[in-house]
Specification:
The structure holds two protein chains of two kinds. By secondary structure, chain A is mainly alpha-helical. Helix content of chain A is 85%, strand content 0%. Chain A has one domain. Chain A contains five helices and no strands. The chains are: A mainly alpha, B mainly alpha.
């Protein structure tokens, strides 16, 4: 793979990471608005839980980002090895999601969770080296 | 964390890793898709491996959404990383592939990371600013949903 080829692959990985992070944050925000599925299901059944999800606008924005991320992944997989694209995009998404969860979702990302994100990110890197 | 919730986290791990593997097998059969011929991505949906991968990813998605309803994003995501360990262990003990020391180190790190996060609380208090997210520090996600229901006018 030449330099421009490598740059193209890493650009594709960047696009996958951005879209996946946006999708994860939007979905997590949507599900947080909706509440615990177990509680909803006990009150209004499975149909009520599905309706609660399908009537949330933020959920569809998240799904759109996830779908775009999925097609970006398919596109990247058709050009580069899965052993590079899958772990690189997954590992980077752990880190970007930790930042997004802290700053956008206002989650309490304590030391334990930062360590977990770094361990998993580094572990994915070593696993596919 | 109940046993049922651990099962849901397990479905998140298995669905994502098996789905990605099937997608990869399918896209290898389909071949490179040109940027000027993106319709090729839709044609790829006819491939049985790609379709099977999508079925597993749907399983992943349903479990993922369920997990997010009672846990933080930063709790669920490291757990999904354990799927890579499952694939590596399957390749070692089922496909008899060789796992290098570097890979064992990676497996140990991911296991450590998942162990770290799952020993903490699945859901933390959030400092919300917006009126639509005005949850007042619930003790549990179930209580959070109950609080939101009570806040709604009859």
């Amino acid at each position: 793979m030449n330099l421009s080829g490598e740059a193209a692959v890493w650009s594709m990985i960047g696009v996958i990471v951005l879209l996946a992070t946006a999708g994860d944050v939007l979905l997590a925000g949507a599900i947080r608005q909706i509440g615990d599925f177990d509680v909803i299901r006990s009150h209004s059944g499975l149909k009520g839980a599905i309706l609660a999800v399908l009537s949330n606008g933020r959920f569809f924005s998240g799904v759109l980002c996830m779908a775009l991320s999925f097609f970006s992944l398919l596109f990247a997989l058709s050009w580069a090895d899965v052993s590079l694209v899958a772990p690189a995009s997954a590992a980077l998404t752990f880190v970007t999601n930790a930042f997004a969860a802290k700053w956008i979702l206002k989650e309490n990302v304590d030391g334990r969770r930062w360590i977990a994100a770094v361990c998993v990110c580094t572990g994915v890197f070593f696993l596919h080296r | 964390m109940t046993f049922r919730r651990y099962l849901i986290l397990g479905a998140v791990m298995v669905g994502a890793s098996v789905g990605d593997t099937f997608l990869s097998a399918g896209m290898k059969q389909v071949g490179p898709v040109s940027l000027h011929h993106l319709v090729g991505l839709l044609i790829a949906l006819k491939n049985p491996w790609v379709l099977s991968g999508i079925v597993f990813l749907i399983l992943f998605f349903a479990s993922y959404l369920t997990a997010l309803s009672w846990a933080d994003l930063t709790f669920v995501l490291p757990a999904t990383g354990f799927g890579y360990v499952i694939v590596a262990l399957l390749s070692k003990f089922w496909l008899h592939e060789t796992i290098s020391p570097g890979r064992w180190f990676g497996i140990a790190l991911i296991t450590l990371g998942v162990g770290f996060v799952t020993r903490g609380p699945s859901y933390t208090n959030h400092n919300h600013d917006g009126p639509e997210d005005a949850i007042t520090l619930p003790a549990s996600p179930g209580e959070s949903a109950a609080l939101k229901k009570e806040d709604q006018p009859a």
